[in-house]
């Protein structure tokens, strides 16, 4: 727990998407604990092609309550990251309360494995994960102060050769997840290059399995246990460990939040263009050393 009055991001303002639950809530609260005021946005309704429930409005209310409990200010708004105009309105509502913007955490994302209809699942995942991340960053760009930090959420899975091309067209929604996260990595790399002379940083955090409602969902259980028609958490959890080299099934949202906090803080003031894996060694199982 940090002390907001003397915190690592004291006096900064953070814009966090996907903030109603899971990693997004964890990031918002962690940044607030360390002194940041928060602009928190989330869709707060379901997407038809996604096989698990999205956050509800009361989840976003709970995030706001948890931020306020730290003593920091928060503006929470419902907005669809797929719609740049909605995001811009939400951000500007927050900026009317705060003086400038220092941190962008583009966290909102969905997993569309076996989504129906398949091509709509592809579109919804690409529009949320990739276009939504770009929208969040680009509506923020005009407001970023010198020293600002942009953090996008990738995925360790996107860094691995996990695309099953033996059955083309078998799972467009699942492939869209991998593609979207790979494309985010490339986008942020090139954006970081252009922002560096302005003193603004941009990095990607790549989590492995993270203990959130996305992971703890039937579509994800089926992806780990395709041999079962209706796998449960108890069926899937022993298999979750295949993603990591360390002997754990998943990391906690707080493990990712600590990386986000570091990248947002002045401790990382010269760290930009980084692909930071928080993956319990998962990447190491796939690749030899690369410089």
From TrEMBL:
Show the GO MF annotations: oxidoreductase activity
Q: Which UniProt keywords apply?
A: NAD, Oxidoreductase
Q: Which organism is it from?
A: Mycobacterium paraseoulense
Check the record and name the Pfam families matching this protein.
adh_short_C2
**Family classification:** Belongs to the short-chain dehydrogenases/reductases (SDR) family.
- Quote the protein name from its UniProt record: 3-ketoacyl-ACP reductase
């Amino acid at each position: 727990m940090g002390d907001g009055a003397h915190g690592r991001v004291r006096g900064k303002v953070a814009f966090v998407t996907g903030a109603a639950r899971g990693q997004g809530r964890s990031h918002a609260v962690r940044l607030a604990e360390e002194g940041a005021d928060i602009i928190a946005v989330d869709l707060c309704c379901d997407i038809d092609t996604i096989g698990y429930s999205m956050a509800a409005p009361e989840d976003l209310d709970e995030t706001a309550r948890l931020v306020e409990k730290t003593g920091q200010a928060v503006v929470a708004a419902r907005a669809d990251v797929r719609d740049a105009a909605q995001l811009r309105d939400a951000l500007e509502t927050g900026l009317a309360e705060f003086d400038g913007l220092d941190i962008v955490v583009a966290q909102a994302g969905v997993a569309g494995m076996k989504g129906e209809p398949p091509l709509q699942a592809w579109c919804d995942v690409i529009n949320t994960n990739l276009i939504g991340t770009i929208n969040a960053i680009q509506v923020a760009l005009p407001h970023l102060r010198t020293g600002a930090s942009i953090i996008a959420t990738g995925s360790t899975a996107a860094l691995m050769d996990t695309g099953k091309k033996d059955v083309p067209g078998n799972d467009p929604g699942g492939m869209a997840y991998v593609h979207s996260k790979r494309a985010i990595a490339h986008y942020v790399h090139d954006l970081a290059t252009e922002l560096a002379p302005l003193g603004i940083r941009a990095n990607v955090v790549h989590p492995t399995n993270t203990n959130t409602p996305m992971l703890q969902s039937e579509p994800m259980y089926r992806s780990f246990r395709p041999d079962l028609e209706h796998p449960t958490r108890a069926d899937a959890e022993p298999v979750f460990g295949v993603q990591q080299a360390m002997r754990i099934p998943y990391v906690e949202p707080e493990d990712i939040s600590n990386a986000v906090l570091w990248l947002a803080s002045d401790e990382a003031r010269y760290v930009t263009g980084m692909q930071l894996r928080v993956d319990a060694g998962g990447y190491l199982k796939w690749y030899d050393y690369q410089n």
